[in-house]
Amino acid sequence: MRTIAEYKPLAGQQFAVLVVGVGQVGSCWLDQFAPTLPPTARVHSTHNSSTPLTTGTIEQLNDKGQTLLVLDLTASEKVSRCYPEWIRAGANIISANKYAGAADTAFYQEVQQALQENNRQWLYRATVGAGVPIPQLVRECTANNDPVLRVEGNFSGSLTWIFQQYRPGDKLSEWLRKASEAGITEPDPRTDLGGMDVAKKLLIVAREAGWDFDLAEADIQNLVLASSLDEELDAAFDDWRQANYPDATQFCYIGRLVADGQHGVKASAALEPVSADSPYAGLAPDRAYFQVWTADHPAGTITVEGPGAGLEATAGAVHKDILEAIAR
Ligand SMILES: NC(=O)C1=CN([C@@H]2O[C@H](COP(=O)(O)OP(=O)(O)OC[C@H]3O[C@@H](n4cnc5c(N)ncnc54)[C@H](O)[C@@H]3O)[C@@H](O)[C@H]2O)C=CC1
Ligand SMILES: N[C@@H](CC=O)C(=O)O
User: Which reaction does it catalyse (predicted)?
Assistant: First the structure.
């Protein structure tokens, strides 16, 4: 555990930041952003699997009158399941972890109820689009009586990074390895390649529009086409490409939410060929591009592009949430 002494001691502190998960995002936030916290906030403690955050610690700090910001920078479902208890003990939560935002409806509602009953905040801008405020845009349109009809974009930072650089003939496994080394895949890259990371992001955004769906019902293309992610994957991916898009020169993994009067929303994601005039064609590997269709903008005229992947963009999004929580 890092000690508070490693951070600038600050007078008149009111916000105690507790960091759960010091991996790539956590380390990046601690190194680059924690030193810039405003004087009213300080890092109280950091926690990993062997020094887990306990509800008792939260209760003690809360009883001392501190406002607590718990950063969940893990990829752990177990940590996300603690949210209701931590909120009831006095914590505000800031997540990069997508588990709670994409949890089953009952648990998601339990978190919302705990927040309401205890007047606490839960912010999670890092969970979708890193530096691109797509959940916020969807929330704002919905709150302002401009119902969202459809959302589309390259929701996966890692698959975008891979496929903006991959060209037919390359080894997919090599690009996947490089993406993992760059820190933009999930701890288990199968989560990205299998589409489940995108499915979770789609659900997080859908909930901002008042929709809900079961992750198992989403139509998500799984690119884990082989049991090992080496030459076996390369061969299986080449077979898929030749069978489906033999002439394509570029691909993008695109996620979609489409309002469906009968069922609320249809969520899907697939690897699609990209033509030269597509907005995705010239996108830099670390950029995200989203389009939102709403009742007031039915032609999809709301577009947002920005830094959609990478540790700095993600840690920066966590930091923005901290500043927002402090300012509220
Ligand atoms: N890497 C990226 O570009 C982005 C990551 N994220 C999300 O941020 C989260 C963290 O990602 P990374 O830092 O890349 O993963 P990571 O695997 O490098 O770090 C996660 C850390 O959490 C720790 N951990 C696991 N269980 C724990 C527990 N019970 N208590 C305390 N710590 C525990 C692990 O030991 C590890 O150090 C993930 O949920 C990921 O989806 C979100 C946006 C972008
Ligand atoms: N693995 C994720 C990282 C951020 O959520 C992605 O590829 O987008």
Answer: L-homoserine + NADP(+) = L-aspartate 4-semialdehyde + NADPH + H(+); L-homoserine + NAD(+) = L-aspartate 4-semialdehyde + NADH + H(+)
Q: Ligand 1, closest atom to CA 52?
A: 30
Residue nearest to atom 5 of ligand 2 (CA): 127
Q: What amino acid positions are annotated as catalytic residues?
A: 201
Write down the pLDDT at residue 8.
Answer: 43
Rg of the chain taking only CA atoms, in angstroms? 20
Complete edge-to-edge strand list for the sheet that includes strand 251-260: 219-220, 264-273, 251-260, 148-153, 287-294, 302-307
Under the phi-then-psi rule, with left for phi > 0, alpha for psi from -120 to 50, and beta for the rest, what region is 224? beta
Domains of the chain: 4-127+312-327 (3.40.50.720), 134-308 (3.30.360.10)
Which residues in the chain land under pLDDT 50? 1-11, 13
DSSP state of 230: S
Q: What is the pLDDT of residues 176-186, one digit of tens each?
A: 999 999 889 99
Atom of ligand 2 nearest to the CA of 186: 1
